[in-house]
């Protein structure tokens, strides 16, 4: 499971978006939450079983090893497992909605 925190909110047209540019993730939810700055979103991404996406583990090279950073150059098979949005001090998880929509899309 990988997390990425963004200071903006995003919407997606698919449960398996294609990331065609380098992007940073962390295996630590708290780190991604920090990067969202409490106003964007945190995406929880999981690998599909047939995934050929690879990442570079930069934790040992980073000035901030506690970030547990994993760098993807591109990713085509990561699936959205959850998106958390923030509003003030409230956190809203889209997990149950994503699960329901994934179920319906399989019918």
Structural features, described:
The protein is an alpha+beta fold and 107 residues long. The chain is 17% helix and 35% strand. It has helices spanning 29-35, 95-105, and strands at 2-6, 23-26, 41-47, 55-57, 69-72, 78-87, 90-93. A hairpin with a 2-residue loop joins strand 6 (78-87) and strand 7 (90-93). The mean pLDDT is 86.
Secondary structure layout plus pairing:
Layout: E1 2-6, E2 23-26, H1 29-35, E3 41-47, E4 55-57, E5 69-72, E6 78-87, E7 90-93, H2 95-105
Antiparallel strand pairs: 1-3, 2-5, 3-6, 4-5, 6-7
How is the main sheet built? 4 strands, antiparallel
Can you count the beta strands? 7
**What is the terminal-to-terminal distance?**
26 Å
Compute the CA-based radius of gyration.
14 Å
Would you list the SSEs in sequence order as H and E? EEHEEEEEH
What value does the average pLDDT take?
A: 86
Summarize, please.
With 107 residues, the protein is α+β, with helices and mostly antiparallel strands.
Features:
7 strands, four-stranded antiparallel β-sheet, alpha+beta, 107 residues, 17% helix
